[in-house]
Amino acid sequence: MRRREFWLLVTPSVIVMFGFMLVPLYRTVRWSFEKVEYGTPGTSVGLANYTGALTDPRLGRAVLFTLGLTVVVTAFCLVFGYILASLVNQLRRARPLVLGLLLVPYVLPHVVGGVAFSWLFDTNFGGIFNYVVNGITGGALGDPLWFTDAWPNRVIVALNVVWYMLPFAMLMILAGLQGVSTETLEAAEIDGASPLQRHLYVIVPSIRGVLGFVLLIFTMDVLRVFDSLIPLSPQAVTLGNESIMLYIYNVAFREGAVNLGLGSAISVLTIVLILVLLYPSIRNLVREARAA
Amino acid sequence: MRLKSPTRRSARLLAVGLLATSLALTACGAGSRTGAATATKVACDFTNPAQPTTVNVLAYNSSAVDPYSNTMVSSCTHDNVTVKHDPIDFAGQVQKTTATLGGDSGTYDIIETYSFVVPDYASRNKLVALDDLFAKHQATYKLDAIDKSLRDAMSYNGKLYGLPMQTQVLTMVYRKDLFAKNNLTPPTTFAELRDDAKKLQDSGDMKYPIALPWSASADISTAYKATLNSLGKNFVADDGKTPNFTTPESTKAFEEMKSLLPYMDPQVTTFDQPKVQQQLYNGSAAIGIMFSGRMNDLVQQKNTKLYDQFAFAAPPSVEKGGKQYGALSVDGWSIPFNTKVDQDLLFQVIAASVSEDASKASIPAAFPARTGLDQSASPYAAAAEAAIKGAPPAEAKPWVPPITSATTDIIGSVILGKTSVADGTQQMQAAAEKVLAGS
């Protein structure tokens, strides 16, 4: 490829990345050192926004909640995504239909899915989950306060995130499974490996790269969870179920002060946190890419 | 292991199907952005501008506001003028208002405002004073029939910043069938409200008879303010410097609010007004107190089979002899300071939308700001009128919105029992002092 063609092809991407990524990033970093109101130039406040963010106990609670949610959801989706992908991989004619159905939660806007999901637990709108579980268990579930008790609320938030993220994990892992060599699997079977052993010692190591990629995407996505909490956790702040993104939104936009400077400082801290958490995954991916 | 070709074909078909369905679903929404096509047509006789002019309107969608915004679009889109109004919810309106008023040029030319926010925006010169335009067009649009007290509620420092369209006032709704069955009368005090609720509970008719919009992230502050105002206190003392949150009335307000909790759904702190409506629709509650704009929905047969069992009254006072547990909100139209459209044209557009014919057509969905209209078709008008008369005077000060924002989560925490009343009131006092110091 000649230099001119290269730049012709690359320039649009560079412009888009500059406009939609670097400029907002620059503004965010700049605002994080300023007191900012809509439509007016910011005034420098030094590190005051960072001091304010780091001394606010809400940030600590938000980070703890978000990290906990990320760990639980990611672990669950990796395990069950793998199981689901293995099952779907066995299908032949029905696979497109099953895949299509499984992908519905993933393509649905999260806030719409969140509202519909909340109705499952809201007695005002039928509360079918309580009804069905109590019907099956003879009332063992009782009437949990899904929206006002911290832990039941965490459960439904986590279930909702799993609901819309699991299809993505399943799809990625399914793609990985289709790249596993059938010869290797047959050899393992001839050598007497049980189905579980074939999964643990042949398939999983073969798709380690895909699993690493899923882990990477999940870490980024679940750390940025926001819209599900609007319908599912109306008392997120009081319950300690405020995610980092919801906290930023509340500080920067919702609460009376509209404190874009403080919100930007928290955003910068979040970027640092995400980079720290992603470092092992990125390092592994780079290593594997180099080895390939 | 590659996908076999029939599978690939099916996958492609599935993708095409999903795409087609998405397009079909989104197409359903296109062209029906507002109900303007079915709105009342009124005279909107502005001088035709020389150039094509688009007037962008920001107004949230509700059954009480829609008649006015729809009339504005349908009646004032003619000649060189196009009035545009896109659907949006209340939270979206709040955010877009902040954004559009932020800089020297905004996105909107007419914005829906309400008495709660007008002093704040007006004190920061974000809205155009309408007095001269009001005087100029008063006779044409019969603007003097708009209630003077409501115009005052949309004024700041003696200047008019919003042309009132309708009033929203906290109004009580109750189930007349259950009240008759249990020989109950509409409560006039919180003590009577508790008594009525207990009798309904004891009769087995209702587990949680009271439903109030006490969402801990928003509505709870309106409820607390209504309780505090009923006890005779505002957020801030008359000196404009001292918050009233550590007064005995503030403590009493929390105690009175908490005294209602045994009669409400344990998750009431997640209830906004639509959820309270839903409780009443479902027959899960017998008494509700909401803004009057929500009341007409309750008597619609399409919404609930209990549509003919609701009656309305003014809300009770917290203590006997006190003001009502009330809040009066006036909705109206304002012109943002940064609009580039001719202000005379904009005023005529908003004046047409609150004209006599438009206001008549908004009944019973809304309680119009105009006086002298026949409201006999409105099932809740008499209750709303009584509620307006008995409501505590509004605290029309610029510090009310920021103090509300700064204290809402604390109020929620106190009501949920996570913070004691003593600690909560101290925290609210400190938060309000910080707001006042910065204003």
From TrEMBL, chain A:
Q: Name one Pfam family in it.
A: BPD_transp_1
Statement: the UniProt record of this protein carries the keyword Transmembrane: yes
Which spans are transmembrane here? 7-26, 62-85, 97-121, 161-180, 200-220, 260-280
Q: Where in the cell is it found?
A: Cell membrane
One GO-annotated biological process of the protein: transmembrane transport
Gene3D superfamilies with a match to the protein in the record: MetI-like
| Keyword set, alphabetical order | Cell membrane, Membrane, Sugar transport, Transmembrane, Transmembrane helix, Transport
UniProt xrefs under InterPro entries = MetI-like, MetI-like_sf
SUPFAM superfamilies with a match to the protein in the record: MetI-like
Q: What is this protein identified as? A: Multiple sugar transport system permease protein/N,N'-diacetylchitobiose transport system permease protein
Q: Which organism is it from?
A: Microlunatus flavus
Automatic annotation (TrEMBL), chain B:
Q: What Pfam family is a match for this entry?
A: SBP_bac_1
InterPro entries in alphabetical order: Bact_solute-bd_prot1 (IPR050490), SBP (IPR006059)
Give the keywords, sorted: Signal
- Signal peptide span per the entry? 1-29
Name the Gene3D superfamilies on file. Periplasmic binding protein-like II
What name is this protein filed under? Sorbitol/mannitol transport system substrate-binding protein
Organism, by scientific name, is Microlunatus flavus
